[in-house]
Design a protein that fits this description.
With 182 residues, the protein is of the alpha+beta class. It has two domains: 57 residues, no CATH class; 87 residues, OB fold (Dihydrolipoamide Acetyltransferase, E2P) (Beta Barrel), CATH 2.40.50.100. The strands form three sheets. Strands 3-10-8-5 form a four-stranded antiparallel sheet, with no helix packed on it. The longest helix is centred in the middle third of the chain and has 16 residues. The protein is elongated, with a radius of gyration of 21 Å.
């Protein structure tokens, strides 16, 4: 049986190769992947009734800023009231980055649609203020009609939910911020 982590690795390998189409069958699982190279080669047309993975390869998030980089310095001012809005905003962003440096991101291991709960009438798996442990289900990501439970890889307190319910997510996109010290 193939799990979603193996499928994610397979998608990444295919997107980095020159393949335009890949099909695989393993027992009951059938997988068909086409890249944007396939669409360009075939002038934008796709065969009818073909399920496909994302037309574009998963996009990687930019790496977080290095901790040894200096934070932007606010211009000297006599008081906070005298600062321009841009300077005050820059100071606020630097303070927010400082607050978030100890937080751990729970990221999406696959491309799909993010759901906070198992059904619209059910409570969310994890919400701000909840304590989570390693292995706790924090959300679901639907990919190709498969609902994949996403487990926390860190124990701590959920500080922020970064994605709106029922929205698309990319591979390696941060979904939650967890404070492991809480």
């Amino acid at each position: 049986m193939v799990d979603y982590k193996e499928i994610t690795k397979l998608i990444k390998l295919i997107s980095e190769s020159n393949l335009t189409e890949f099909k695989m069958k393993d027992g009951d699982l059938e997988l068909s992947i086409r890249t944007d190279k396939y669409v360009k080669k075939n002038k934008g047309s796709l065969p009818p009734q073909q399920a496909m993975m994302p037309a574009q390869p998963p996009q990687m998030m930019a790496p977080p800023s290095q901790p040894n980089q200096a934070a932007p310095q606010a211009a000297p001012a006599a008081s906070q009231d005298n600062q321009s809005p841009n300077t005050a905003e820059a100071a606020g962003n630097a303070a927010a980055e400082e607050d978030n440096k100890d937080l751990v991101e729970v990221k999406s291991p696959i491309v799909g649609t993010f759901y906070r709960s198992s059904a619209p009438d059910k409570p969310p798996y994890a919400k701000v203020g909840d304590e989570v442990s390693v292995g706790d289900v924090v959300c679901i990501v639907e990919a190709m009609k498969l609902f994949n439970e996403i487990e926390s890889e860190v124990s701590g307190k959920v500080v922020k939910v970064l994605v709106e319910d029922a929205t698309p997510v990319e591979y390696d996109q941060p979904l939650f911020l967890v404070d492991p010290k809480a």
